[in-house]
Amino acid sequence: MASRASGAYLRTSVSPDLPPPARVGGPVAWVRENLFGGVLSSVLTVLSALFLVWVTPDLIRWLFIDAVWSAPDGEACRAPGAGACWAYVRAKISFFAYGSYPRDLLWRVDLTLLLGALLAAWLLWPGARRKGLGLLLFLVAYPILAYNLLHGMADSLRAVLRGLADVSGSAALADVAQNALPVVGTNLWGGIFVSLLVATVGIVVSLPLGVLLALGRQSSAPVLRMVCVVLIEVVRGVPLITVLFMANTMLPLFVPEQWSPDRLMRPLIGVAIFASVYMAEVVRGGLQAVPKGQFEGAMALGLTWRHRMALIVMPQALTTVIPGIVNSFIALFKDTTLVAIVGIFDFLRAVDTQRLDPEWAGPSISATGYVFAAAFYFVFCFAMSRYSLMMERRLARGHAK
Amino acid sequence: MSDASQVQPPRTPFLRAETLRAAAWQALMLALIGWLAWSAFDNAVENMRARGVPTDFSFWNRPSGFDINQTLVQYSSSGSTYGRAFVVGLLNTLLVAAFGVLFATVLGFAIGVARLSGNWIVARLATIYVEVIRNTPLLLQLLFWYNAVLKPLPGPRQSLALPAGAWVNNRGLFLPEPMFGPGAEWALAALGAGIAGTIALRLWSARRRAATGVGAPVLWPSLALVIGLPLLVFALAGAPLTWSFPELRGFNFQGGVRVFPEFVALLLGLSLYTAAFIAEIVRAGIVSVSRGQTEAASALGLTRGLSLRLVVVPQAMRVIVPPLTNQYLNLTKNSSLAVFIGYPDLVQVFAGTVLNQTGAAVQVISITMAVYLALSLLTSAAMNLFNRRFALQER
Which of A16, A394, B103, B369 sees the fewest Cβ atoms within 10 Å? Predict the structure, then answer.
């Protein structure tokens, strides 16, 4: 013990060991630190726990235990105490996915979706090779193929095939030219595939058009700059619904009668323009983030404007704004639901109309349909955001200090 | 090596001169745009004439002949014009946007702070909320609230009782309505005077602190002025306030304020949706203030509350305000989704019913777009003013 008698504070013996600190590891310490760190924290923990206890069992019971998994019609789902009516989703899934597309031609939709998924996987897979070829196929070959598959063979293609049949004298080819891939009007299209179609068109158009608009906004030519600025600011200042209304009712007025676009084409144009101006602002942010030295270095190397942009500036600008680009894709995917306002049967509209089907109508049908739709959109959007996080991390590796 | 001064730059041929080419391109572009605009106009006039669609704004003063359930101003299907319907729709849009901004801000700040909470369960719940809300379409949420939550509520006779004498059923939300008697305007005047006094007091205190280093106490006198003074006047005036409670009479409620289910669904959907985005903005703002700032503040001896108020929040606000403005604009624009659940906003009333009845597509849609554009510009102007207060004062 310390001796004070000598007047100096001198320790003469080893002090006894202090007790070990109250648990710093293990579950108890974790709970104390993360759940009961203070009075407020404890109160919040108790309230949250009460909330979870209140909500979770009912939710699980509704979603799984009391749910009706298979039934021929809505009778079982209308029984008191019944939960979610998954049987209804199973019965309607074909309508939710394809709308009124002729049932014997569904393979055309499936094939288009499958090819699209394969191409998308090629482009999105980080280690994939020859992405340039993939991009070319996706942007040029795939849209043509998708049009011929979904809508029906284009007249020009038919004419070419007919010519070939005449030259070769092949009856089989003539038959193909005449009857293969009959036209399916867009009034029959609907469901998930239309949602994916609108989103894909929006994404595919908005990226290049957004880049062009962003470049135009920075151009030194005043006319071009003014046009881009006005377009971007006006479209960004109004809701998508008004753009869709405009595309639907005003666009047919602005072109000669015979050019009037198809009823599905109009909202596609509206969505594409809307997505492009938002993309333009994202790309502009990326352009502004590229250091001036990069422009100057590229100029010093004697590169032309096109090469400067394509080889030096754009790659850097686009990589820095990948999160922003993916965010606008997510927003676009969610916004595809609004095309319902101009009478397009997208997925959500399909779900929303079917809940009134008298065969199934019941107290739990609306909620079931919406929960199913929410799960669908959530999976897509969440996957997109995770993918963007992954890419961000991959690309950041090169800049790690 | 040759003498640099003797090397003549190669002469650019006249037609390849940069400036001339640029000017030519611009002229060409201008001509193209002019031609496009002119042909669009020409086509529109021709098509509209062929379809018998009005090409002027004379429909504005014609009687509308349709009903609107929620009207903030005098409106009737028999006596009101399309122009009046436009005003009703615009006011309804502004109403839902104003309440939406208020609720979304409060909720968004709370959830943003909760996501950063040291409390594991609170942070997790906030994260789940943000992820679920942000990754599903707003329209889906609106339809869910309206069709799956509010519509299946019981009818008036089986209304659910809420606290403080409010009721909810499938016809809407019924709230008690405060009825102010004579003398209440004095309390209101006192409130105004109290607010003015508080502002004056703060200015004076700030000026004194700048001059002498010691400010005057502000908090308690402010509270006394803003809350105490109106209450005192209110009590002196004989507390002229009665509540009109909604009561079930026959098949529906009488008295109180009726809030339509469409409004409730839209407000709920917009607020919850935008709050998730605001929460992320708030979180990013708080995270952006470096730890050294808080540490330096506590090294200076500031208490936790003071360091939050004087050091962290002002710097976080600098990051928060610009994207927050965007969210307010988004909320206003998203209120146009009202058309899907039948809330009589600008788009539903004007770009919906009025357009269908008159057929004046170009005029109606142009006016609608112009209104949203003006709202956007006004909001960003107001928020820029607010932002200037928080922006970095670079010297």
Answer: A16
Name the DSSP letter for residue A189: B
**ipTM metric:** 0.88
Residue pair A181/A257 in contact (Cβ under 8 Å)? The answer is no
Q: Is A305 exposed, middle or buried (0-12, 13-18, 19+ CB in 10 A)?
A: exposed
**pLDDT tens by residue, A151-190:** 988 888 888 888 888 888 888 888 888 888 888 888 899 9
Q: Which two tokens stand for residue A230?
A: 């006005």
Q: What is the pLDDT of residues B195-208, one digit of tens each?
A: 999 999 888 988 88
Residue-wise burial string across A351-379, b where 16 or more C-beta atoms lie within 10 A, e elsewhere? bbebbeeeebebebbbbbbbbbbbebbbe
Nearest chain A residue to B340 by CA distance is A341
Rounded to the nearest angstrom, the minimum Cα separation between B200 and chain A is 36
A35 and B121 in contact by Cβ < 8 A?
yes
The CATH number for A208's domain is 1.10.3720.10
Residues in chain A: 401
Is A335's Cβ below 8 Å from some Cβ in B? yes
Which residues 248-307 of A are in CB contact (within 8 Å) with B? 249-250, 252-257
Q: What are phi and psi of A179, to 5 degrees?
A: -115, -20
User: How many CA atoms, within 13 angstroms, populate the side-chain half-sphere of residue B63?
Assistant: 7
Measured CA distances, B26 to A164, A220, A223, A233, A280 (Å) = 46, 10, 6, 21, 22
The CATH number corresponding to B46-149+270-390 among 3.40.50.1220, 3.30.2350.10, 1.10.3720.10, 3.40.50.720 equals 1.10.3720.10
In angstroms, the CA B97 to CA B336 distance is 10
